[in-house]
Specification:
This protein has 299 residues and is an alpha+beta fold. The chain has 2 domains: 174 residues, Jelly Rolls (Sandwich), CATH 2.60.120; 110 residues, Homeodomain-like (Arc Repressor Mutant, subunit A, Orthogonal Bundle). 39% of the residues lie in helices and 21% in strands. The protein is built from 10 helices and 11 strands. The strands form 2 sheets. A 6-stranded antiparallel beta sheet has the order 2-3-10-5-8-11. The protein has a 5-stranded mixed beta sheet with strand order 1-4-9-6-7, with no helix packed on it. Strand 2 and strand 3 form a beta hairpin. Helix 2 runs antiparallel to helix 3 and helix 5 crosses helix 6. The longest helix has 19 residues. The radius of gyration is 22 Å and the shape is globular. The chain starts with 6 loop residues before the first strand and ends with a helix.
Length: 299
């Protein structure tokens, strides 16, 4: 490792990776309404060399092609060796990192805000004692799958919405805690964790604000439960995830609004929280079995 201090980068800042990468990101979550997670998709020119740096966030690098990589992670040197699509490295906030690649690397950079991470896992462990252990060149199908889902969401322009991204982020955070933390989380008893009165508060809130981009933390705060456990308790009681439930509510409200022929389908899609009419029509058809227009014509 160089005697010089590594660059300290804040992934939350737009174009922060320009300081270490020659090409800008092809896809980026900057500008989206995602909270607590930042995602970029890159293809960098060969030979690729990334100078020593560290992020203020917990970071994951997910390789998406076959490439030969040399690296340093927290002072430990890793010689040149082939990586395959799906292999990753993980480092906690402040972990020093440096790499070089012979071929053109295609990868995703995922960063989790430490404060958000702590809020997600605080009911599983003492967040002050969390130590994420750095890992280099490992395979993890769950992280690979979440990475691809986030990439697809970026490619779509965020069609599935913030609740969907929050669900992926929370699943990723808890997986890192369980598999890559030095401290073993305790099991939580879910009994009576979300009483009917509290559940009704959440349901009323959802129906009052269907036209908005709702966040999981926003709903969880209503009942003073961490987002991860709120999501699990909600699914136990309702049978579907908060994201799925909100989608169902949006479609049900859309069915009611479609009875009013003075309202355009574009207007209705916006009123129920879809900012893309095409996505609204596809989601409506998937759930109801017909397009909004055909549904209205059948009334």
């Amino acid at each position: 490792m160089s005697s010089e201090k590594p660059l300290i980068l804040d992934f939350a800042q737009t174009d922060a990776t320009k300081l270490i990468l020659p090409r800008p990101a092809i896809l980026s979550s900057h500008g989206a309404k995602w909270e607590g997670i930042h995602v970029e998709y890159h293809r960098q020119p060969p030979p690729h060399q990334c100078p020593e740096h560290c992020f203020q966030q917990h970071s994951i690098g997910l390789i998406l092609n076959s490439v030969t990589v040399t690296g340093i992670l927290n002072g430990k040197h890793y010689g040149s060796e082939p990586w395959q699509s799906g292999q990753i490295f993980i480092g906690a906030a402040g972990t020093d990192f440096q790499s070089s690649a012979v071929e053109e690397p295609e990868f995703m950079a995922i960063a989790l805000e430490p404060t958000d991470f702590d809020k997600t896992v605080d009911e599983s462990t003492n967040s002050n004692l969390i130590e994420i252990i750095p890992h280099w060149k490992i395979s993890d199908p769950l992280i690979h799958g979440i990475g691809w889902a986030l990439k697809t969401e970026l490619e779509s322009g965020g069609l599935n919405g913030t609740l969907y991204v929050d669900t992926l982020k929370n699943a990723l955070s808890m997986h890192i805690l369980h598999r890559y933390s030095a401290q073993k989380p305790h099991r939580r008893d879910f009994d009576n964790g979300l009483e009917p009165v509290k559940l009704q508060i959440v349901i009323n809130y959802i129906n009052d604000y269907l036209n908005r981009d709702l966040h999981l933390a926003e709903l969880a705060n209503l009942v003073q439960i961490s987002p991860y456990y709120f999501s699990r308790l909600f699914k136990q009681l309702i049978g579907v995830t908060p994201h799925q439930y909100v989608t169902q509510c949006r479609i049900e409200k859309a069915k009611q609004l479609l009875k009013r022929r003075d309202l355009s389908i574009t207007y209705i899609s916006e009123q129920v929280g879809f900012h893309d009419q095409s996505h609204f029509s596809k989601t409506f058809c998937k759930i109801v079995g017909v397009t909004p227009k055909k549904y209205r014509d059948s009334l």
